[in-house]
Amino acid sequence: MLLGADYPFLDVMWTMLVFFAWVVWFWLLITILTDVFRRHDISGWTKTAWTFFIIILPFIGVLAYIGTQGHTMAERNQGEARAMQAQTDDYIRTVAAQSSPAEQIARSKELLDSGAITQAEFDSLKQKALS
User: Fold this and answer.
1) Residue 6 gets which letter from DSSP?
2) How many other C-beta atoms are found inside a 10 Å radius of the C-beta of residue 36?
3) What is the DSSP letter of 99?
4) Per-residue pLDDT reduced to its tens digit, 84-126
5) In this predicted model, what pLDDT tens digit does every residue of 9-62 receive, in sequence order?
6) Cα(66)–Cα(43) distance, rounded to whole angstroms?
7) pTM for the complete prediction?
8) CB count, 10 Å around CB of 32?
9) Burial class (CB in 10 A: 0-12, 13-18, 19+), 111
10) Nearest CA-CA partner of 77 in 89, 85, 65
């Protein structure tokens, strides 16, 4: 008994096309709504209007948003990516700038030799550096 005989190949292809069209449509809606709510250059009422327009008349709302705001969506995404990269680079620089345990112990030893700290404080600093 063949199970696929009742569902021809072209019907399978059409079902896959419709499924992926729905996936693309929802991805587009989520992308546009995300862009609307991440914007800092428009007011809350404008965000409300765009959201209302996209939810009530989705096809026209999406096409209108892409037509009027689409050219700046990529610029905003690139700016956000640059800001996130800069934040990551700053974090890496601060972590990399921290001295190694050997450097911390050497500085503590210099302080001990100069009399600025006691032997107990040196031992405490040494223990912190090694942990």
Assistant:
1) G
2) 20
3) P
4) 999 999 988 887 777 778 888 888 888 889 888 899 998 988 8
5) 899 899 999 999 999 999 999 999 999 999 999 999 999 999 999 999 999 999
6) 19
7) 0.61
8) 21
9) middle
10) 85
